[in-house]
Design goal:
- By secondary structure, the chain is an alpha/beta fold.
- It has two domains: about 140 residues, 2-Layer Sandwich (Nucleotidyltransferase, domain 5), CATH 3.30.420.40; about 120 residues, 2-Layer Sandwich (Nucleotidyltransferase, domain 5).
- It is about 45% helix and about 15% strand.
- The strands form three sheets. A five-stranded mixed β-sheet has the order 5-4-3-6-7. Strands 9-8-10 form a three-stranded parallel β-sheet, sandwiched between helices.
- Helix 2 links the parallel strand 6 and strand 7.
- Helix 3 packs across helix 12, helix 4 packs antiparallel against helix 9 and helix 8 packs across helix 9.
């Protein structure tokens, strides 16, 4: 049983007994924020990807690095970590054995609670209230239609087809090939070791060209927007009216949704870190958060 947090002011800024850490560990990066018992942000930090797809040890290292960066900004020493209650939203938590493995790791905190990154985003978006989200983020290669990884994958695939004269070309595809010195073999070699994050790195390029009118870029982005729209429609059919679109691609992709769907989207109250902090503060229990799983959709998304 985790000890109940106590609270007392310390130096008029950092609480002596009750500090709270929220973690948003995603496929592209890991973000951390530390707050006092009054909800004041004391420090923020970030690190590299924190997803169980890269291994439990790598995910945990990224979590600790982001936490250390936030603590340094807040002026919190390592020995003060024992007063921190952590809520950790993590990509890939649902993978077999991932949560059990994470819970076996010795940690420096007063308590730790794990939830998926999607659940953290949903809690943050609606302040712990009922609602649903669609996460337009990094995604998984070949799995999450409409994600950043899928957008990048489609651009690479079509660029290779154009290079082999099996398809039309465009300024977008020329720039994609230019990233590999216009050498298709180099692109193929890259793809054999590329991660979802690597593919998602091409998504901003695709969106930029689509906005400029590139026909192939437009088709790729329209396909992604259709996938996101389908998920939003599912929630609407189930009578869920409070919907938010979150994730790194949410802003650019929203512009490609139908006017009706854009009008149904509610701006999120907070981010996934805010959702993780709700769990750290026990304002939402892990059991309650898990019960909301049906209200979280990744594209098709921690």
């Amino acid at each position: 049983m985790d000890p109940e947090p106590t609270s007392a002011r310390w130096n008029g800024m950092v609480t002596k007994g009750a500090l709270y850490l929220g973690i948003d560990g995603g496929g592209s990066r890991c973000r951390a924020r530390i707050e006092d018992e009054y909800g004041a942000a004391l420090g923020e930090g970030s690190s590299g990807p924190a997803t169980t797809r890269l291994g439990i040890d790598q995910a945990w290292r990224s979590i600790l690095q982001a936490c250390a960066a936030a603590a340094e900004q807040a002026g919190i020493a390592r020995e003060d970590f024992a007063r921190i209650h952590a809520g950790i939203g993590l990509a890939g938590l649902g993978r077999r054995g991932a949560q059990a493995a994470l819970e076996q790791i010795a940690h420096p905190f007063a308590s730790v609670r794990f939830i998926s990154d999607g659940l953290a985003a949903c809690l943050g978006a609606h302040g712990g209230a009922d609602g649903a989200i669609v996460v337009a983020g990094t995604g998984s290669i070949g799995v999450d239609e409409g994600s950043g990884a899928d957008i990048g994958l489609q651009a690479i695939r079509l660029a290779l087809c154009a290079a082999d004269e099996r398809g039309e070309t465009s300024p977008l595809l020329e720039e994609v090939l230019g990233a590999f010195d216009h050498d298709p073999l180099q692109a193929v070699a890259w793809s054999e070791r590329a991660t979802a994050t690597d593919y998602a790195g091409f998504a901003p390029m695709v969106l930029r060209h689509a906005t400029a009118g590139d026909p192939i870029g437009r088709r790729i982005v329209e396909r992604a927007a259709d996938a996101i729209g389908d998920l939003l429609d599912v929630f609407l059919r189930h009578g869920i009216d409070r919907l938010s679109l979150v994730g790194g691609l949410s802003g650019p992709i929203a512009a490609w949704l139908t006017p009706d769907l854009r009008g149904r989207i509610t701006p999120p109250d907070g981010d996934a870190v805010a959702g993780a902090l709700l769990v750290a503060r026990r304002r939402v229990t892990v059991a309650e958060a898990t019960a909301e799983r049906q209200h979280v959709a990744k594209v098709p998304t921690q």
